[in-house]
Design brief:
By secondary structure, this protein is of the alpha/beta class. It is built from 8 helices and 8 strands, in the order E-H-E-H-E-H-E-H-E-E-H-E-H-E-H-H. It has an 8-stranded parallel sheet with strand order 1-8-7-6-5-4-3-2.
């Protein structure tokens, strides 16, 4: 099953409640929230107050992607704020087992995120403890970037790695995904598709969500 997770990084924050309502109407499965600290990535975005505000606005699960240093110090606070899924980067979290376990014990789904140039071997030991892997198909820090084509091969290898171990770990992918490439991405093994500009850059975000899902199913 392909799920579409609109990224609010590309939404109009002056109309955020309306933007959330539009993608909900379009059939979005969850909302993707990028949290950046200006240290791990070269940008600063939203934090706990915005996650709390979103949680009051929607019944959709909130998928919180922590692009921050020392994420283990903050995961519980984001769950308390309303996050249903929380992902932390292997590049910045040396205690993945502890942090992923903490997220799950607090009732949220635990994800490990990995940058384009980081080899999959870095997350191999963490896979049994993760509910999902967030595979970055752009370098994190900014929206609107072009999809890195070598991510497709990495996605296929990750799919094999999970299947060979008979794990239930799902694959989420984020970065440069649109109607032109989403079918290839779904075919390669992604299950949760994050999209920002391809949804909020369109005149009708609700229709954009529906169009992405339809395009993703073309490979079947």
């Amino acid at each position: 099953m392909i799920e579409i997770a609109p990224s609010i990084l590309s939404a109009d924050f002056a109309r955020l409640a309306e933007e959330i309502e539009a993608v909900t109407r379009g059939g979005a499965s969850m909302l993707h929230v990028d949290v950046m600290d200006g240290h791990f990535v070269p940008n600063i975005t939203v934090g706990l107050p915005v996650v709390k505000a979103i949680a009051r606005t929607t019944k959709l699960p909130i998928d919180t992607h922590l692009m921050i240093e020392e994420p283990g110090l903050y995961v519980e606070r984001f769950i308390d704020a309303g996050a249903s899924l929380v992902s932390v980067h292997v590049e910045t979290e040396p205690h993945l087992h502890r942090t992923l376990t903490c997220i799950k014990e607090r009732g949220a789904q635990a994800g490990v995120a990995i940058n384009p140039a980081t080899p999959l071997v870095e997350i191999e030991e963490a896979l049994p403890y993760a509910d999902f892997v967030l595979l970055m198909s752009v370098n994190p820090g900014f929206g609107g970037q072009k999809f890195i084509e070598t991510s497709l091969d990495k996605l296929r290898r990750l799919r094999r790695m999970i299947d060979e171990r008979r794990l239930k770990t799902r694959i989420e992918i984020d970065g440069g995904i649109d109607r032109e490439n989403i079918a290839r991405i779904a075919e390669a093994g992604a299950e949760i598709i994050v999209a920002g500009s391809a949804i909020y850059g369109e005149e009708d975000p609700a229709e954009a969500v529906r169009a992405l899902r339809d395009a993703a199913l073309q490979w079947t």
